[in-house]
Amino acid sequence: MRILRPRKLTELRLHSWSGHFQAQNQTPDILSIVMLVTQSSFKAAALIQRWYRRYMARLEMRRHCTWSIFQSIEYAGQQDQVKLHNFFSYLVDHFTPSSHNEKDFLTRMFTEQRSPQGSEMENCGDCESIEVPDSYTGPRLSFPLLPDHATALVEAFRQKQRLHARYVLNLLHEARKHLVQLPNINRVSTCYSEEITVCGDLHGQLDDLIFIFYKNGLPSPERAYVFNGDFVDRGKDSVEILMILFAFMLVYPKEFHLNRGNHEDHMVNLRYGFTKEVMHKYKIHGKKILKLLQDVFCWLPLATLVDEKVLILHGGVSDRTDLELLAKLDRHKIVSTMRYKTRKNKKQAEEKGKANQMGSAERPSPWFLPQSRSLPSSPLRPSTHKAPRAGRSSSVPCGVPLDPKELSRRVRRSVDLELERCRQQAGFPAIKEKEEHSTSESDVDSDAEEQPEPTPEEWRQVVDILWSDPMAQEGCRANTVRGGGCYFGPNVTERLLQKYNLQLLIRSHECKPEGYEFCHGRKVLTIFSASNYYEVGSNRGAYVKLGPDLTPHIMQFQANKATHTLTMRQRISRVEESALRALREKLFAHSSDILAEFKKRDKDETGLITLSDWAAAVESVLHLGLPWRMLRPQLVSSLTDSKLAYKSWLENLAKEKLSQQNIQSSLLETLYRNRSNLETIFRIIDSDHSGSISLDEFRHTWKLFSSHMNIDITDDCICDLARSIDFNKDGHIDINEFLEAFRLVEQSCSGGDVSDCPQVTASSNSVHTKASSVPVTQGASEAMPSSLLECLPYSP
């Protein structure tokens, strides 16, 4: 390290050294002076280096704590999502509909038709009736797509233009037709292109996608891409990202590949923003877009295999992961990984499916069928057999037995696709979807009814590869932090790689500070491509490039220009402030429970507790696993004799959140705690995605809750309740009216005894579901509308 000192300081030091030599009656020589200068410089450099290392260590500690806060709160939200849907699933599975309307409502609430069939598919694909006004200045698409169309789409979205609903539906429809033909596990090869670029989660951040294309180049026959799931949710441009990805997939079907992530799931989209984004951008045709998207998501491939050596999937693996089973299952049956269908007729459907399989066990699939669900098992088994290399994505029949109707349907589909391809090559106009689906309605209906449900093992296999995370310890255990999937150790990875003769596993699913992370002896690589995921400056994005030698080359980036002008300390301070603000909101949302824990530890009722008790009480309520004692200086400002006056501390938290309107603290706490869950519940009840709850939807939902909670309430009372929530009397309940109803009920019941609240029932103080025990919300514990709050999962 070179140290520059001012001239005066140097003169003073030389003067002091001269005095040193005179005091010892020595004649100074040049060598002695140089040695003293060198020793002094080394000491100064060592001091500066020690100070710098301590400074960087403190910054790293702050960054680590900040990261832990963001990640813990994110995973707690995912736990809430799983618990909420487990609760609704329990209600649906144990509620017997009394009419056809109620049965239809339950079907639409969770298990919308798995694929648009017959005339319904006709409606989804018939986009020509949607008029594009002359005033529309956005991009226009025509099919088959050309490279210029996809490039123009990127540029239009970069300039904040919006694609018309007609072209969105057209693009989704064409994407579905292509995805149906793909195997569950795509096989790609580096011998046909210079390199293959693998990108991780994008989560609706269009700037990151555009930056990747800018730095790495647009997709082309020489530049293949694999996008590893989680294209949507959280960010504001999820629709635009999907349109770009699907467009390039259609232009370069052998060079551009997409894997399904855990957020390509209509149930997850209800909570994390994609459903809301679609309905906001396409108010008229949003429902049709969402329905088609649900089906498109189900057809996304589950994994990609590069040169039969590198496996790319979204989440991870488990000790029971079976790639051969994943290659053969019907991925389209997995509508959502949030819930496995357990209706009463499930066993009958399974038995019927087994009977059909046994009856056709000796009927192999013809070679000409589109192999949309199979992958040759040889690349995944330890074998010397080499698969054909006719293209970057290929599949061969696997001999899975089919029942006669399914066989007939696939044959018709294969012939139609081949005829359509030949017509397009000959220059004839494309056949409309009506002609393509000209089969009789009875055949289609029977096919839809007899389509078997996924087995529990198939469902678990898909959940594991979409939700799992690696861990440093050996073994495999349930992923209780996320609420789904598992944690898999190095031995699980090693066993899977050896079994299928693989050398590397590339996954995404986790945000990493540097955008990537190796683990398990560099045999597992995590890639995350959404930079600034939690806050500007919180993390880098990354993508990985694989050449013929399959050596991963990591490329990091920051899409936000503002981060380049900030120092490391400024970035950490900015991110830390955002994380602490989110943590204070979490503390405020659970202040009542925290106060109860403080009182348990304050046995003498002094109003003071030690810092150790403070940390233990907060962790016992939030279960975030954070270093609370290390965070104490940022969360607790004043102490009395090394003890905390906890009531005043909680009051200060409330003052930060109270708005200018004089809203009661306990009421605001309830809304902070449950708002995300309430919005999710609203979108679940709003099964047709209209943006409002009809009186029929409200009535059916309340019959579901009252049946579960043993509340005796008539249809007239439910209708009166719905009308009382419908403040503007338009016959529908929008999200603001829905939240306002909970605010008013909580406010009216928090001021007095529970018995003063209307519609009091003699239900117990807690609601026990199959998934978990749900505590009662304070204040309005037994009021009729607030009983829905009681059903909300505890939010740790």
TrEMBL record:
Keywords: Calcium, Hydrolase, Manganese, Metal-binding, Protein phosphatase, Repeat, Sensory transduction, Vision
Enzyme class, broadest EC rank: hydrolase
Superkingdom assignment: Eukaryota
E.C. numbers: 3.1.3.16
Cofactor(s) it depends on: Mn(2+)
A Pfam family the protein falls into: Metallophos
Limits of the EF-hand domain: 589-624, 673-708, 713-748
Biased composition (Basic and acidic residues): 431-440
Free-text function comment from the UniProt entry: May play a role in phototransduction. May dephosphorylate photoactivated rhodopsin. May function as a calcium sensing regulator of ionic currents, energy production or synaptic transmission.
Family affiliation: Belongs to the PPP phosphatase family.
Protein name: Serine/threonine-protein phosphatase
Provenance organism: Muntiacus reevesi (Reeves' muntjac)
